[in-house]
Design goal:
This protein has helices spanning 5-20, 28-36, 40-72, 77-125, 129-134, 137-155, 157-179, 181-189, 191-226, 229-237, 241-293, 299-340, 383-386, 432-438, 462-467, 483-488, 496-505, 509-513, 532-546, 562-576, 588-593, 611-617, 620-639, and strands at 371-378, 409-416, 421-425, 447-452, 455-456, 469-472, 550-554, 580-584, 596-601, 604-609. By secondary structure, the protein is an alpha/beta fold. Helix 4 runs antiparallel to helix 6 and helix 19 (532-546) packs parallel to helix 20 (562-576).
Length: 649
């Protein structure tokens, strides 16, 4: 069964094991410092509170010694009362320091999470379109959620825990040496027995943690794909619910298996520490009891030593766990930095200048820009150039392909004149969409140049290029927000009248006005509360609101009913009027009105000209016309079908 659980398990297992064995990169700790610097005063507060807490932890057993030796045994009630009150006061101060630690670590941790998430989000947005075609959304979301939260631990709890552990260890040892050097030396002999298992188990936990993150990201990715409207509909229409359940159960089981290993190894260290602590406590009671019987050691001192011993092995235990926790946190930071280190494939050159329309242009050239392709060749970048193996569906690096050097485009040259309509036609896979992707610089040509108004796109700022270009794709995508928010995405400063005017021009205002909440209606996931034609007209309204001098359009109307198609064709007439237009044409009416037609075949321009000239030439265009467009012409002649201007041609 294609894509079944067993196939997935066999294919993914070795790769995931390899991913989990990757080690934290050098320099990761050094890269964390800049993120903590803005919270330096919070960190100072956290450390001061931690120091106070550590001092109290070492001082409390000494109060026990004094209570027993100087109060209970000599029967001095006043000493017992005052020392007990002092012990209670220390408990209150310790509680206050704990509250301050929580306040400071909360601000540090949440601030760090916010900053990291924002930086990763902004960096991901700078990635080229190819990054998103190679990346599984669920895995990417996992980096912004689970990994960023894991990274927070390195700067908050681990920081205070490290300071508290080391300081407590030093103070407790000093107090123990002061009370009895013999017992202290015996206790210190046991410490290596704590540290060796911690180091070995910590390495294992690090590998398990990375594997668990990878498996959890796989499961999240599947949920992201299946829980949107399109994925849910596909599963229902094909009746794949049982297979989907089995596939998800397989992924969930792999998360379970790795998590179970993590629980086992995580519990193993405390068990070992508990056993060693029990042995050491027995040693101290035996040695200390003998010294107390001989009169070498006071009873209160023995009680204080046992209490200090608990405070000694507590930090030693924490020190053992600290290494494992630090490794886990560093894995999270490493995975976040892995995304931040991915350099955008499309960048601005130093000194890039904005694209502007010269102010001295008048008449028909006012506010218009032309598009020029000069000997453009293009091949899509390899996966390793635009994405990460750990984010891709393959879950492993794909080597650069050296056996297939066939470019998508080869030697494409043309001029789309300012204010004119240029139509792209050709068979599927010929390279039409690739040409439209190069105009707003979603990709850069492998060779040659794409120019707007004579300027190479690579010499212009990305913001100015995209500000002057409006694109409507075949997939009319809407965010799950209100109609108003989706329209304002085209021009955030537009007022109410401009919104209504754009909707009227796109022939969608009557539909929006009839809704109970009008422009404030939430469109649903990917706009599924609207029909395909309505979504297309909303995106056209967004384009009209932006009012760019250049329009790039994949004219998709074949899947719509006649009424929606007619409305969109009339809206297109408004959208393209007076603008430089590059359109992948699906309708004969658009082709007939084009000022020039470019016939794309196998990544090249095989023919160019007007409809009449190309039809007379008897080449590929004529073949396409007779196989695809002739029936549209018959429909127009017989039934008066929809055309660009809304009237039969």
């Amino acid at each position: 069964m294609l894509g079944g659980p067993s196939m997935s398990a066999v294919r993914r297992g070795p790769v995931d094991d390899l991913m989990s064995r990757q080690r934290v990169k050098r320099g990761t700790v050094r890269r964390i410092v800049p993120y903590a610097r803005p919270y330096r005063w919070h960190i100072v507060t956290l450390l001061v509170a931690t120091v106070i807490s550590a001092c109290i932890a070492a001082a409390s057993p000494l109060f026990l010694k004094l209570i027993i030796d100087d109060g209970v045994l000599p029967r001095h009630l006043g000493v017992v009362v005052w020392l007990s009150l002092g012990l209670a006061g220390l408990a209150l101060v310790d509680a206050g320091s704990g509250f301050v630690q929580g306040w400071a670590s909360g601000w540090i941790g949440e601030g760090l999470v916010c900053e990291l998430r924002t930086e990763v989000f902004a960096h991901v947005q700078e990635q080229p379109l190819a990054f998103f075609t190679r990346t599984q959304t669920g895995k990417l979301i996992s980096r912004l959620n689970a990994d960023v939260i894991g990274a927070r631990q390195a700067v908050t709890s681990l920081l205070s825990q490290a300071v508290s552990t080391i300081l407590t260890l030093v103070l407790v040892l000093a107090a123990m040496f002061y009370l009895s050097w013999q017992i202290t030396v015996a206790a210190l002999v046991m410490i290596p027995l704590f540290l060796i298992p911690a180091r070995l188990i910590g390495r294992r936990i690090q590998r398990i943690t990375r594997a668990m993150m990878e498996q959890d990201a796989e499961m999240s990715s599947m949920m992201t794909e299946r829980f949107n409207v399109s994925g849910a509909m596909l599963a229902k229409l094909y009746g794949r619910a049982p297979e989907e359940r089995d596939l998800f159960a397989n992924k969930a089981a792999r998360v379970r298996d790795v998590a179970a290993k993590g629980v086992v190894w995580g519990r193993l260290l405390p068990i070992i520490v508990t056993i060693l602590t029990s042995f050491t406590t027995a040693l101290v009671y035996g040695l200390g009891g003998g010294l107390a019987i001989n009169g070498t050691l006071q009873l209160g001192t023995l009680v204080a030593m046992v209490a200090l011993l608990m405070r000694l092995y507590g930090p030693v235990n924490q020190l053992s766990n600290l290494q494992s926790s630090a490794m886990v946190a560093l894995v999270s930071f490493d995975r976040v930095f892995e995304v931040l280190d991915l350099k955008p494939h499309i960048t601005e050159r130093p000194g890039a200048r904005p694209l502007t329309v010269p102010a001295d242009r008048t008449g028909s050239e006012a506010g218009l820009l032309d598009i020029e392709f000069e000997d453009v060749s293009f091949r899509y970048p390899s996966p390793g150039q635009v994405s990460l193996a750990s984010l891709s569906s393959a879950a492993k690096p794909e080597p650069a392909r050296t056996d297939d050097n066939t470019p998508t485009l080869t030697g494409v040259s043309f001029l789309a004149p300012a204010g004119k309509l240029t139509a792209l036609v050709g068979p599927s896979g010929a390279g039409k969409t690739t040409i439209t992707h190069l105009v707003p610089r979603l990709y850069d040509p492998t060779s040659g140049a794409v120019r707007i108004d004579g300027h190479d796109l690579r010499d212009l700022t990305l913001a100015s290029v995209r500000e002057n270009i409006g694109v409507v794709t075949q997939d009319a995508h809407l965010f799950n927000e209100t109609v108003r928010a989706n329209l304002l995405y085209g021009r955030p400063d537009a007022d109410e009248d401009e919104l209504v005017e754009a909707c009227r021009a796109a022939l969608i205002w009557d539909t929006i006005e009839a809704l109970p909440e009008g422009l404030d209606t939430v469109v649903g996931d990917r706009g599924y509360r609207f029909s395909g034609g309505e979504k297309q007209r909303i995106t056209l309204a967004r384009l009209l609101l932006k009012a760019p001098p250049i329009v790039v359009l994949d004219e998709a109307t074949a899947h719509l009913d006649s009424e929606s198609e007619a409305a969109i064709q009339r809206a297109l007439k408004t959208a393209l009027a007076g603008r430089t237009s590059l359109v992948i044409a699906h309708r004969l009416s658009t082709i007939r009105e084009a000022d020039q037609i470019l016939v794309i075949e196998a990544g090249r321009i095989s023919e160019r000209g007007t409809h009449e000239k190309l039809l007379a030439a008897g080449g590929l265009y004529a073949d396409l016309y007779h196989s695809q467009f002739a029936r549209q012409a018959e429909d127009i002649e017989v039934n008066g079908g929809p055309v660009l201007d809304g009237s039969p041609t």
